[in-house]
Design a protein that fits this description.
By secondary structure, this protein is of the alpha/beta class. It has helices at residues 12-23, 35-45, 57-64, 77-91, 102-109, 112-118, 131-143, 162-171, 212-220, 239-242, 252-263, 271-276, 304-321, 331-335; strands spanning 4-7, 28-32, 49-51, 69-72, 94-97, 121-123, 149-156, 176-180, 183-187, 193-198, 201-207, 224-229, 278-287, 290-302, 327-328, 347-352. The protein binds NADP nicotinamide-adenine-dinucleotide phosphate.
Length: 354
């Protein structure tokens, strides 16, 4: 394999990806803004490293231009994705990231034309958000040709990393997001709910601003997309009590208090949890003019952070071999909806119609 950069390698997820690359003997170059965090990791894993921040595009370009791709793991991506993606386009280097933030998908999508001219692939969302859901969405769309609507849901017992919680916290003041008639619209958090059979039980959850609200609209062409999370820790009856307080998330003091609470927590799930927890992803496409036209799929797969490591490395492997990929691509647009089934410990649990 040709060399690639893992930027943000000192973070919880970046380090897991770096460790896996070392295990596979892949030529990863670790990178980040802080030498005191990158150097010890590079020494521990015996991998090369580079230190640069994201303020100066020419510095980023000169630091990445000898690599075939950057796997960007430094989030919250609202602060980091655009400078890295622009530098990738200027340097002729493929861009991947593990974001789940809708505004980031929108920004990267806006660079589609420039990336196509440069022959650079832009692939945001190569982790748990959005690989399994994007693949599931495209599986059901292929089996329901006249679909007008798409629901996606997922269930996972898993704990979130500090970086994921901070990224989600930054997005919460924007409220919920759904796609209606092709447009991404805002709404209240903890309002729109749905019950879905997942992991063998009926589970109720709320619509959330997950990346597929943007990406599945692009990769399936369906105008109405809603994503639900079946959160195990949040009893559904509590939602109306909590909802009035979600407005407080716009307050800078509340944001800062919650960020400090997150910082005092653990970096992310431990190895035992990553190797034992399971995740379940569901998609249903249907034709609103004729509800007997529908397709459903449920996929069982790995815990979210183990998934993110495996799926990002799978995408890197495929991107290196692919010819002529350029512009904004979702995982299933680039490599087909069976991409998810190529990952370890992943299978279709049920499909309708059979
Ligand atoms: N799609 C998915 O399913 C998925 C899965 C896992 C993670 N993620 C996302 O990935 C991101 C990282 O998560 P994590 O748990 O690994 O977080 P983390 O442990 O907090 O690590 C964050 C990393 O980003 C770097 N960073 C942050 N802001 C930066 C900036 N302005 N410039 C340069 N580097 C910066 C940090 O560098 P320093 O060490 O210098 O602070 C650190 O290396 C989050 O946005 C998370 O939501 C998504």
């Amino acid at each position: 394999m040709k060399s690639f950069i893992i930027y943000g390698a000192s973070g919880y997820t970046g380090e897991l990806i770096a460790e896996k690359c070392k295990e596979l003997d892949y030529p990863a170059i670790l990178a980040g803004r802080n030498p005191d965090r990158i150097r010890p990791l590079a020494e521990k894993l015996d991998l090369p490293f580079r230190v640069f921040d994201l303020d100066d595009s020419s510095k980023i370009q000169s630091s990445i231009k000898d690599c075939f791709a950057v796997l960007h793991c430094a989030g919250p991506f609202v602060h980091t994705a655009e400078p890295m993606a622009r530098a990738c386009i200027a340097a002729g280097v493929h861009y991947m990231d593990i974001t789940g933030e809708i505004p980031v998908f929108q920004t990267i999508h806006s660079l589609d034309g420039e990336a196509k001219k440069a022959g650079v692939a832009l692939m945001p969302g190569t982790g748990f958000d959005v690989v399994p859901t994007d693949c599931a969405a495209n599986m059901v769309t292929a089996r329901c040709k006249n679909a007008t609507d798409l629901d996606i849901a997922f269930f996972s017992l898993g704990q979130m990393s500090r970086g994921t919680m901070k990224s989600a916290l930054l997005q919460m003041p924007n409220g919920n997001r759904i796609r209606r008639n092709g447009k991404v619209e805002s709404g209240a958090l903890l309002k729109l709910k749905k019950t879905v059979r997942l992991a063998g039980k009926d589970r109720t959850g709320f619509s959330i601003p997950w990346g597929d609200v943007f990406t599945a609209g692009i990769s399936t062409g369906i105008g109405n997309v809603t994503v639900y999370s079946m959160v195990p820790g949040l009893p559904v009856f509590m939602a109306p009590l909590i909802r009035p307080f979600t407005g407080l998330l716009k307050n800078a003091g509340v944001q800062s208090f919650l960020r400090n609470r997150i910082d005092s927590g653990s970096a992310g799930p431990d190895e035992k949890t990553r190797n034992s927890d399971r995740s379940y992803v569901y998609a249903r496409a249907w034709n609103s003019a004729n509800e007997s036209e529908f397709a459903e799929v449920e996929i069982e797969t790995m815990e979210g952070y183990r998934f993110t490591v495996e799926s990002s490395i799978k995408v890197l492997e495929k991107l290196e071999k692919a010819k002529g990929l350029s512009g904004f691509l979702t995982p299933s647009m680039a490599f087909g909806s069976d991409l998810v089934l190529e990952l370890p410990d992943t299978k279709i649990l049920r499909q309708l119609p059979n």
